From TrEMBL:
The gene is LOC111087774. Residues 1-23 form the signal peptide. This is Zwei Ig domain protein zig-8-like. Residues 33-130 form the Ig-like domain. InterPro entries: Ig-like_dom (IPR007110), Ig-like_dom_sf (IPR036179), Ig-like_fold (IPR013783), Ig_I-set (IPR013098), Ig_sub (IPR003599), Ig_sub2 (IPR003598), Neural/epithelial_adhesion (IPR051170). Gene3D superfamilies: Immunoglobulins (2.60.40.10). It comes from Limulus polyphemus (Atlantic horseshoe crab). PROSITE patterns: IG_LIKE. Keywords: Disulfide bond, Immunoglobulin domain, Repeat, Signal.
Length: 147
């Protein structure tokens, strides 16, 4: 089952990659898209909402996908949510920022979240979500206090 999901996921994404390559095959030299800032690592309590932002410039005709690497799940593609899990959503704002939202996090949401651009070779950047079973208060971007 997990294997099947993995295969389907990578097939879907490979299809997009080919389409991306084709649509960028014009004669005009195109600036390659790139990430402008790292994706943060987030610690969050069970049941809270969390978001991760992927900031990309010069996206052009390329596409952005969010993947939950640990679960081999393709979550979103551009503005579309691909996973059937209704707790996931995506927004695209400021032209360059693709924000993945997870509502009411569960422990199984922990792990690596990868933002991929379908350049060839593919570019990616990851952030890690740690879901903890107790309440925390964020002190600053990197430190949390256990309550
Ligand atoms: C997030 O955590 C990973 C592995 O634990 C680390 O390699 C990476 O540098 C961290 N990213 C940030 C933005 O701190």
């Amino acid at each position: 089952m997990g294997f099947l999901v993995a295969v389907t996921t990578y097939f879907l994404w490979a299809t997009c990659l080919l389409q991306g390559a084709k649509s960028s095959g014009s004669k005009e030299p195109e600036v390659e898209p790139d990430f402008t800032e790292p994706i943060p690592n987030v610690t969050v309590s069970v049941g809270r909402d969390v978001k991760l932002a992927c900031v990309v410039e010069n996206l052009g005709s390329y596409r952005i996908a969010w993947i939950h690497t640990d679960r081999y799940t393709l979550l979103t593609l551009q503005n579309r949510v691909i996973t059937r899990n209704p707790r996931f959503s995506i927004t695209h704002n400021g032209h360059r920022t693709w924000t993945l939202y997870i509502r009411e996090v569960e422990e199984r949401d922990s792990g690596e979240y990868m933002c991929q651009i379908n350049t060839s070779p593919m570019k990616s950047q990851s952030g890690f979500i740690s879901v903890v079973g107790y309440f925390i208060q964020e002190i600053d971007g990197n430190n949390v206090m256990r309550l």
